[in-house]
Design a protein that fits this description.
Helices cover 52% and strands 19% of the residues. It is of the alpha+beta class. Helix 1 runs antiparallel to helix 3 and helix 6 packs across helix 7.
Length: 294
């Protein structure tokens, strides 16, 4: 009975001392975690609010990078909090941290071989963020060696380890950063809508060029379309000649990510003008590769 009382007294002393410290450490870690998440959400919300008030072309570079950087800093802060709390709790539990150095070194080597993919993902994510390859809200095309199909979508989340994008079909695709071999940013600084117009060989090329030039000027004067254009769409001339038709190219510089909308509107306007002029298009109007590099 006396021994039991001694044990209970020792447990009570430990609970009032180191046990209470452990509880306070865990509680503090939880509070710091909630604060870090709240602060990160507050910062990203403010960045988004400022982006909506600023010029769309400027925010394509500044706010997207800051948004991604804020998410990464929040994630790193949470990792530091968890690691520091784990070390402090282990010390108060009497775990000899100095004696864990050698086993930790062995474990680190083992993890280095077994977790090479994770290390590769984190390093790749670090360079993606620091080099501003893309950020939150960018329209990107990712090439992964494990599949022959490229993925095109809007970046919804980018961390040190993964990149999450949403495709036009609404699918959410998560890709480890280390597996991305090539990134095509379709919304960097500005984009280009390229419309190749097939024209029958019997039609006067100068007349077609004038019609397309007029379509570009009318589009730039349109109050609904002009905010998406950086300048007046230009006619690049004849791009190719076939037996029965030739192709004339119309090019428009647009805001990032708006090349698809502008291209669709320009194709509709060109088709309407050709129909009015009695010009029969031999094949469907096509838009060049959406990367804006045509």
């Amino acid at each position: 009975m006396v021994v039991s009382l001694i044990h209970l007294h020792a447990v009570a002393l430990w609970a009032r001392g180191k046990g209470l410290e452990i509880v306070l450490l865990i509680t503090g870690a939880l509070l710091l975690t909630r604060f870090a998440n709240w602060l990160g959400n507050k910062i990203t919300a403010r960045i988004d609010a400022q982006a909506r008030e600023s010029d769309a072309l400027v925010r394509s570079e500044a706010s997207k990078h800051r948004h991604a950087l804020a998410q990464v800093i929040t994630w790193v802060t949470l990792v530091v909090i968890y690691c520091a709390t784990a070390v402090a709790v282990a010390a108060r539990l009497g775990v000899p941290l100095s004696g864990l150095i050698a086993p930790a070194a062995v474990l680190g080597v083992a993890l280095g071989f077994g977790a090479q993919r994770i290390v590769q993902d984190v390093l790749a994510g670090f360079f993606i963020i620091t080099e501003r390859q893309y950020g939150f809200g960018d329209l990107v095309r990712l090439a992964v060696p494990s599949t022959t199909e490229v993925t095109i979508g809007t970046v919804e989340d980018v961390t040190l380890r993964i990149t999450t994008i949403r495709t036009a079909d609404g699918e959410v695709i998560t890709t480890p950063n280390g597996q991305i071999t090539q990134v095509t940013n379709l919304s960097r600084d500005w984009a280009r809508a390229v419309v190749d117009v097939p024209v029958p060989a019997a039609v006067d090329v100068n007349h077609v060029t004038e019609l397309l030039r007029q379509v570009g000027e009318d589009a730039y004067r349109d109050g609904a379309l002009s905010p998406l254009l950086l300048d007046t769409p230009a006619v690049m001339g004849v791009q190719s000649i076939d037996v029965d038709h030739f192709q004339v190219r119309l090019v428009a510089r647009t805001l990032p990510g708006k090349q698809f909308d502008v291209g669709q509107i320009l194709r509709s306007r060109v088709a309407a003008v050709f129909l009015k002029e009695g010009i029969n298009v031999p094949t469907g109007l096509d838009t060049a590769d959406p990367s804006g590099t045509a």
